[in-house]
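Ticket #4471: structure output looks truncated?

Reporter: J.K.
Steps to reproduce: submitted the chain below (134 residues) through the standard prediction queue, then opened the result file.
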Amino acid sequence: MDTMAPEERSHRMALVRSENTKPEMIVRRLVFGMGYRYRLHCRDLPGKPDLVFRSRKAVVFVHGCFWHRHSGCSLARLPKSRVEFWTTKLEGNRARDTSKIKALQAAGWQVLVIWECELKDKEVLAERLRRFLG
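Returned output as attached by the reporter:
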């Protein structure tokens, strides 16, 4: 059973953003500080990648561990209420992510997925981005 009234739950869910999230902003600041320039959320590419580096033909997705079902991550737990609904929804997100990544790769793009839980160690993340974009 949900512990919130439907109106309160609706309000909370409306606050969840798909663009300009905190994890995405952290990655954007880091990449910009490293001297790389990028485009945001290009609608002409499958999945509207968070960061697009057209000259390098590379894209970066910044995924929330909960919303995109990061395997083996404690942040990817299922809610206790409406388990069937959430399982269907979140697994659909994962399947859609996989198909969009495959479409990008088939079109010759390099794809990097950065998970929310990977943002803790900025030095490791910066090195990973440098290797990917270098």
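Triage note (M.O.): checked the attachment and the full token line is present. Helices lie at 6-14, 22-33, 83-106, 122-133.
Status: closed, working as intended.
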